[in-house]
Diaminopimelate epimerase (Pedobacter duraquae), 262 residues
Amino acid sequence: MTTIPFYKYQGAGNDFILIDNRSQNFNNLSTKDIKKLCDRRFGIGADGLMLLNSHADYDFEMRYFNADGRLGSMCGNGGRCIVAFAKHLNLITMETNFLAVDGPHYAKISAEGNWVDLQMIDVEEIFTDGAASILNTGSPHYVTQVTDLEDLDVYQAGFEIRNNDTYRENGINVNFIEDKGDRFFVRTFERGVEDETFACGTGVTAVAMAMAKKNGKTGKLSQPIQVKGGELRIDFNYDGTLFSDVFLCGPAERVFGGSVSI
């Protein structure tokens, strides 16, 4: 049996298990182990698990696993939470440069350590699938507008799109949007979790970009987003072709810590 010290973090209700793996003691966690740790009945419970690894050229490396136990693509809220974890470990103070699966990321964190602005990748290509927008913000996203989002069966609607003939093999995250005037209300079905989550960082980033393009907005923009778990904000520049200087901004809070044996 292996005993693993861990911390639980959440960003707008998107929750994660964080493990300090600078010692390389937990490299042998299996898909089955990770899936069990993320299980909300038989484990700790989380949307994903992250290992914080050492890296010669960066403050740290983020290695992210989905709740199904498999290696994931970039997770925006996970990225913000691991920055807060790195501050807790005294690896960083107010700023950091770290490495994730989609490349280097810069982030800044509040003095209290509970608010993180995370720089996301630049995006140029947005495709369409009928009325929906398709883009990759570190993870692939399907963005579609609906009405009466509060009453939508997001699991069923998202499951059908994620598993249709186009997306079944590689999967896609499905974001449903309702325009509330001063903000967008977003609910997301996430691949890897295979269910609705309370927030999705790369998803709300994709929403902000897709809607800016659709509505013909350019320049330096700031888009508030409401999710089931709270409020997030996307700051970015859009010149009509390229989305750059993109920041996912929001809370990243430590919930509890402990140890678990597997």
In short: The chain has a mean pLDDT of 97.
